Amino acid sequence: MRFSEGPEFTKGHGTQNDFIVLPDPDGELELTDAHVRALCDRRRGLGADGVLRVVPAGAVPDAPDDVDPDVWFMDYRNADGSLAEMCGNGVRVFARYLVEAGLVEQSEFPVGTRAGIRSVRTHPDGGSTVDMGAARIFGDSAATHGGREFAGVAVDLGNPHLACVTEADLDALDLAEAPEHDGGLFPNGVNVEFVRPTEPQRVRMRVHERGVGETRSCGTGTVAAAVAALRADGESTGRRIVDIPGGTVQVDVTETTTLLTGPAVLVGGGRLDAGWWRQVEGG
Ligand SMILES: N[C@@H](CCC[C@H](N)C(=O)O)C(=O)O
């Protein structure tokens, strides 16, 4: 069966943080919140943690001014339809897509995001490294979950994080519910990471993502986790290997920036049914 009229899509993931990639080279795709929610729904749609629209920055009205209009822009949406400034796994999958689709020829190139330009390097083994920029610590805070308080650090990676280093048993956490956070410090919501050191320079992490729920990985979250783990060890630079339920990534924190390295997988693709797409539009 061929679905020849609806939008084209590719499904991909980075350490099982999964995305639907929608190419929109002319900036003409009418992508509503309802489309995003339906696409990401694991029963009535394709299923994903988020949607990545591939569009020239010049066709995105809210693209930051310092992003060149000709650069490919990652228009990221969470599964609930909300916009986010940045997605670390998403940008790595996005980069892999650009290369495989022949939209870029180099292995190192800039990607536009709502948090600004991110430089990405794709590796021959299918992995990629993204320069996430400097992580900005903007306070100490706490998450409350399961009647327990977890001290954490607020980290800005373009999007907001609360990374809580803990000795708690991560497997015992029920992240079906969102942890409570300080709405004053995080007026637009927050991604919450629970981070447990396991070996020197290695941590485990579970995450509850704003606009999604628990995911099997969060790239910006792993960077926040590494920053918090280094801080807990009295360091501000260094490497941390981060194990998440969906795999393993490497985070390097320098004086000036942070680098996230990990696998990026394209699973397959096709066309959405035009009738389904139209029917979803309204609700
Ligand atoms: N999974 C992403 C983060 C996606 C955005 C996040 N849910 C937010 O709302 O800030 C990642 O890999 O960084």
UniProtKB/TrEMBL annotation:
Q: Does the keyword Amino-acid biosynthesis apply?
A: yes
Binding locations of substrate: N17, N78, G88, N89, N159, N191, E209, R210, G219, T220
For the site Could be important to modulate the pK values of the two catalytic cysteine residues, which positions are given? H161, E209
One GO biological process from the UniProt record?
lysine biosynthetic process via diaminopimelate
**Pathway named in the protein's UniProt entry:** Amino-acid biosynthesis; L-lysine biosynthesis via DAP pathway; DL-2,6-diaminopimelate from LL-2,6-diaminopimelate: step 1/1
Q: What's an example GO cellular component term for this entry?
A: cytosol
Q: Where in the cell is it found?
A: Cytoplasm
Q: So where's the catalytic machinery, residue-wise?
A: C87, C87 (proton donor), C218 (proton acceptor)
Among its keywords, does the record have Cell membrane? no
The free-text function statement in the UniProt record for this protein reads: Catalyzes the stereoinversion of LL-2,6-diaminopimelate (L,L-DAP) to meso-diaminopimelate (meso-DAP), a precursor of L-lysine and an essential component of the bacterial peptidoglycan.
NCBIfam families xref list: DapF (TIGR00652)
Please give the name of this protein: Diaminopimelate epimerase
**Per the UniProt entry, what species is this protein from, by scientific name?**
Saccharopolyspora gloriosae
